Amino acid sequence: xxxxxxxxxxxxxxxxxxxxxxxxxxxxxxxLEKNSTAGKKLLITGSGKCNITHSGDIRDFFNHYGKNNKFxxxxxxxxxxxxxxxxxxxxxxxxxxxxxxxxxxxxxxxADILEALLAECKVKKIKxxxxxAVEQVNYDxxxxxxxxxxAENIYKSNYLVLATGGKSYPKTGSTGDGYEFARQLxxxxxxxxxxxxxxxxxxxxxxxxxxxxxxxxxISLWRNNNFLQKWQDDILxxxxxxxxxxxxxxxxxxxxxxQLKLNLVDFKNKTDFENDLLKKSQxxxxxxxxNLLKKYQLATRIITEILPMAQLNINKNSAHLSKMEAHKIAxxxxxxxxxxxxxxxxxxxxxxxxxxxxxxxDPGTMESKLCNKxxxxxxxxxxxxxxxxxxxxxxxxxxxLAGQKLKDYFSNN
Length: 413
What we know:
The chain is α+β, with helices and mostly antiparallel strands. The protein has helices at residues 13-22, 58-61, 73-78, 81-89, 110-123, 177-184, 204-207, 245-248, 270-283, 289-293, 300-306, 323-334, 390-412, and strands at 2-9, 29-32, 53-54, 95-97, 102-105, 127-129, 134-140, 145-150, 154-162, 189-195, 199-200, 213-223, 226-237, 241-243, 259-263, 336-339, 342-343, 351-356, 374-376.
């Protein structure tokens, strides 16, 4: 049995940064990683460019983590985006910010972020055991130590950090192992589901619109004919259904069987659009319906695909448009219905929603409320952010708090 002061399961950014912040002289810190190298998922973030954080005011960050955003208050204010960038600046890395406020390494290489972290680990003598998949975790209450078993070794550790990530991109090693370890230690797991992912719907009307993108579309979410919420953002029609920020960032709220209603025109409601449509049909009576609808900045493909759903001929003369027909058109274009057949799975989801129940974790330290000296950081927690660097920021910020608390423990023992 190998004795360790601190064991961290998972060599992603959250696990590594926890170790860096916890490191103290003469403390034996070990990171166990099932892969042959560290940071496998980090290296593919942002298509390999690593969107590490966002340039926005840290107060705005809380609008990008869904309903569990308050949990991150201590973490984000303790270690915000400016402190994260400053840390890497000290390691000779420079950054660039794009038009959307996303921040990347100047080199556009995620590998530079990983190399900086690993270099710091070397300085602080943090050890790694690769190809070491953890099989079981237990807590010896009498001796107050964790017993961590791999195929090769058994470790006895005074402190333990779960930094295994979620279930997204399982080829990188994120296969949900950490959830079982948390359960073994008494924690409740909120059912994991794909997040930051696209919507699958094989409706031929959607497939025929593949490649069309729309800006600032108003979307409402319905479940069992009950309205849930409304938002506006960009969408992209794909060969499988819908994508784009309006879908990806809100996929955490979707359930199979839900329905989306898309407002494809620049009117607040269908009544206003219907009235304007009747007005324009008289003003431009010589136009057919297809050309009349082009007056509303609608793509021709959208018109020719959706208008027939109202059982109307796109070549019908606008002057002959009846109030009932205008009502049908308004209904279609202001509330274009898309059923959620299912979401793209964990293989394509950027992150995982669900994870360790946040009510069982101290938000000021990331320490378990149920098991002393156990910590959880990063994606294994039941919180997920929008695209734009918010998830990596949360990983570093939660790791910072855990590391600081562990450092305090080490200093007092």
